[in-house]
Amino acid sequence: MSILLRLDRLQVGYGDMTAVHEATLEVHEGEVVALIGGNGAGKTTTLRAISGLLPLRAGSIEFAGERLDGLGSSQVATRGIAHVPEGRQLFPTMSVRENLELGARSAEARRRRAETLVWVFDQMCAIGRGLMARPRLLMLDEPSLGLAPVVVRTIFEDLQRINQGGLTVLLVEQNVLRSLQLCRRGYVLENGRISLAGDREILLASPHIKQAYLGL
Fold it and tell me: What is the pTM (predicted TM-score) of this model?
């Protein structure tokens, strides 16, 4: 599979604090990749940097062969990356349909808006809004946060179907076991650094993963 997204020695921070230190990772077209780690590890910061919401201090971001570092968030979105942030950040005064339609930004996405609405109406609204962009890469930050277990199961089943339909997914998720069961490969981010990476089977068998994240 070809590389769709590549981060090379990414360094990102806030003020005097560096939150991500020289992180390097790849996402291949058509796969699900999990980015796991504890609170404050730098996962959300990494997604925000990819989306153009935070400037880089060092390193580079490449998507579909094009450099993204230096681009604004709207420019990144039009290139085919949809970011569903932590907390979902929907507009509560707007209807579900209005929230979804807000996701269709590019001219091509607007042209296919009615078709896409049919496709996403059975998904959760925040994920559906990301899908409205018809992205090549869907980045999800804690999609199960605050949801009942039965709803979480439904979301992961939906994500599996979405991926089977050809969409590439980069997933940040507190439910490490479900994330690793869904993904093909994963990266562990600890204290802003990639500490472990590998295929799902390698990560699930790791003593560190079992002790630190699975409670085994």
Answer: 0.82
Task: List per-residue pLDDT tens for the chain, 216 residues long.
Answer: 799 999 999 999 999 999 999 999 999 999 999 999 998 999 999 999 999 999 999 999 999 999 998 899 999 999 999 988 864 555 556 666 676 666 676 777 777 777 666 555 564 566 777 787 889 999 999 887 766 677 778 889 889 989 999 999 999 998 899 999 999 999 999 999 999 999 999 999 999 999 999 987
| Residues 172, 21 contacting (CB under 8 angstroms) | no
Burial of 64 (0-12, 13-18, 19+ CB in 10 A): middle
Whose tokens are 């730098």? That residue is 42
Distances (CA, A) of 206 to 130, 141, 186: 33, 24, 12
- Residue indicated by tokens 């807000």: 102
The amino acid at 79? R
- At position 153, the amino acid (one-letter code) is R
